[in-house]
Amino acid sequence: MPSLLMETKLVILAQSARHCSEPVSFLSTTVISVWFGTMFWDLGGKYSSRQDLFNAMGSIYNAVLFVGVQNSASVQPVVAIERTAFYRERAAGMYSALPYALAQVIIELPYVFVQAKSYSVIVYAMMGFEWTLHKFFWYVFFMYFTLRYFTFYGMMTVAVTPNHLVASVVASAF
């Protein structure tokens, strides 16, 4: 009987081979970041009035929400396909549910980190926020964890529904 760690490593290897749509996701994230950067060009440097502050906060909210919903929607078909393979492989006795769930979470972490980092560099620079190291890292930190939240939310909706079509309807309700 293989250990939990060994099973998790095997599932990570299997799932990493199935992640073939990631270059398209990174390209769309780059296009969206340039789009939001041009739409809210140099908005972060303006903070002379209360409305300027609200505009900057609203631009950050819109930018995070748009990419987050995209992450939630794009992960759903991938997880649905992987779930079909999981049922087949679990029936064959290859691994149990816990290593599969851990691998699903672990495999998304580097993808979301690269996505958050590339998105943050473009949007932060184009919105004209103050370039200090700790402020930029706070921006990347919040972007990373927000994108993780949306990605895991999309994965959860697939897990609790029969297929990814129902999951997209459920995800849009919240």
From TrEMBL:
Cellular component, GO annotation: plasma membrane
Residue ranges of the TM segments? 24-41, 53-73, 93-114, 121-144, 150-171
Q: Which segments constitute the ABC-2 type transporter transmembrane domain? A: 25-174
The species this protein belongs to is Glycine soja (Wild soybean)
Its membrane topology, per UniProt? Answer: Multi-pass membrane protein
Location relative to the cell: Membrane
Q: What is its main location?
A: membrane
Asked if the record carries the keyword Transmembrane, the reply is yes
Q: Does the keyword Chloroplast apply?
A: no
Annotated GO molecular function terms are: ABC-type transporter activity
Protein name (record): ABC transporter G family member 36
Q: Which UniProt keywords apply?
A: Membrane, Transmembrane, Transmembrane helix, Transport
